């Protein structure tokens, strides 16, 4: 907790040292004002009672008015500074959080629901949330100053009452801390329901699911689930509110009893002549003020504690080490082998892999070589492990056993970013970015994001150039109906939606922006294309892959027949390998699959209609 508090402070100070210092000054001055007010009130009251001169009374009244004005001005200035600092802290928090998230090189963390829960809580750690634990402590400091000065005032009049007011704070503080701790536990408990609620919300409101939801009539069903999750969240919040309600009632009764006892004592004292009228009014104001500062002090401590409990998730996420550790210790990173251009080939040596210990083996002792300058095709039934193998080649996961070697170097020993810089991949589940057509292609190589010649060349090669040219703003057209661009902001029909096949070609163009890389991996590059496009794309890719090191995955066996080597993966193991002619000459899996596909195109093999 202390470590997190230190981290919160360092972060706040780094974000806005001037705003933080300004708040500290306001808190000190503002903290002294109530006691000044109480003493000035006492002087005025006693002055009236003892018939002091009008000039004196005027000076004290003017002083009291100045105290009120300064208090109001300080509170507004503090609010302004708080807003300023909150925005700066927000920015720094987000910069660090997303830098940490982007630095995770692997995928397994993103697939771990417990991590996702903590990540969601970490995203809430903006300036607003952190404030009670950082500059909010200035308010706390101000409350302490107010409290001490008011307690001193009460102490002068009645030491016993000062002790009583102070003692009343102890149960209040303990109860509030216990409440906030329970709150943090409850929030973590309801986070999964919260995430599911968010999931159903976006499912119902986002475009991709809109068709199926309407066709299958899933709206009411999904809404019921959404509300069910919301009820779970609310039930958790209600439990916390009830506990807070009960505790607050008890604390209010305690505070009321003390104030009542003080009032009786003061009136008694005035009746006995021990206290002047000014003493009584100062005492009543001081007890009320002290109790109020105690309440705000206790709640400031409790809020700071609560903020730190959430901030702990942020600290956890931002301090996580790289999820794909290198065997070399950090101090020896400089000794890591440097990725050199591929010269011999990539080898999977006895690779075993499962997504985690609870999952079955996906790859079982795979031995596979992609020689330099040659094309290898990977075929196999659904779930055979082809895309998993691609993810291992990009080192999104490490093999559970065995190794992936790049010219003989274990890729675990090199920087994943360097490895990925040498690879171009079209993933089976490629991304469609709600950005312009040029950006959708240019993202393939950030250094060429503004290089229109290269972007157009890649689009030409993926045979999507003509479609892009025909768009209202050509390459600058936004491929989205959920945002607007500056040029389209007044056009209600802004943005264009591409077809599935067009998106696929666009993704291929993005991959071809990396055509100069050492290894080109294409996972189902033509799944969504029409027959003509498929033919053209594969003809283009065949030319493109010639003399390059490439791995092609396709269920369309016609597309892989030219590969230098075809590897058949079945149930996580390599069961056949060879050229198309070699494999079709045997009576194996490939020959069987090829025969089934070929029969679909031969009229004589189509069963006659009854
Ligand atoms: N992230 C993941 N976590 C857990 N299991 C996974 C994950 N991704 C894939 N799997 C499992 O791994 C197995 C292999 O999946 P993979 O996507 O590699 O198959 P594939 O050969 O590419 O299939 P397809 O031809 O359908 O694309 C499947 O049983 C799948 O359920």
How many distinct beta strands?
10
CATH superfamily of the largest domain: ABC transporter type 1, transmembrane domain
How many helices in DSSP terms?
20
**Distance linking N and C termini:** 78 Å
User: SSE order in H/E notation?
Assistant: HHHHHHHHHHEEEHEEHEHHHHEHEHEEHH
Largest sheet, strands/sense/barrel = 6 strands, mixed
Q: Which ligands are bound?
A: adenosine-5'-triphosphate
In total, the number of domains comes to 2
Strand order of the largest sheet: 6-7-8-3-9-10
CATH class annotation of the largest domain? Mainly Alpha
Relative strand content: 5-15%
Low-confidence parts: 606-610
CATH topology description of the largest domain: ABC transporter transmembrane region fold
Oligomer: single chain
What's the architecture of the largest domain in CATH terms? Answer: Up-down Bundle
- Overall, the morphology is elongated
Radius of gyration: 35 Å
Architecture overview:
The protein contains 20 helices and 10 strands. The chain has 610 residues and is α/β, with parallel strands linked by helices. Helix 1 crosses helix 3 and helix 2 packs parallel to helix 6. The chain is elongated, with a radius of gyration of 35 Å. It starts with a helix and ends in an 11-residue tail after the last helix. The structure holds adenosine-5'-triphosphate (ATP). The site of adenosine-5'-triphosphate has 13 residues, from helix 11. It is a multi-pass membrane protein.
Question: Which key phrases capture this entry?
Answer:
60% helix; 610 residues; Rossmann fold; 4-stranded antiparallel sheet; ATP-binding; alpha/beta; ABC transporter transmembrane region fold; binds adenosine-5'-triphosphate; disordered C terminus
